[in-house]
Amino acid sequence: MTDVNPDITRTIAIAVQPQENGQYICQLSSSLSDSPRENIQCYGQTKEHAIAIALEQLAHEYRQIAEERQNTDWDTGERSDSGEAITKHYHVILHYERIAEEESKFEAMRNTIMGNTVVENANITVIEIDPNIPIEPLTRSWD
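Given the sequence above, the corresponding structure tokens read:
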């Protein structure tokens, strides 16, 4: 019989409530022992939008924890005994949000992409990873 780590078996609960104005509020509660916050509360235009915002808030906080716990020197790379640079694998996560006032959804997307501020204003997390970890980076989908 395998021992189960209690931190792994904890839960994250999501509750979504409609508001009188037709919008939604999402309450996300975590029982994880290293949770940055016990509760996250976010508003959204739809219930799915509210859930997505709350989950992104939680993901942002955990990305920060993961990066900080690695305590990696940003500027210094490792070298082999022969002096060659040792390359490592990194999961680079770029997150950018903005509120756009545009004529259409297409214009909001196009003006965000064309604004050339996405990368420079984004929250970027860099986490060193094992080269064999099965991570599939999210990519833009036009569906």
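The mean pLDDT is 86. Try to locate this feature in the token string yourself.
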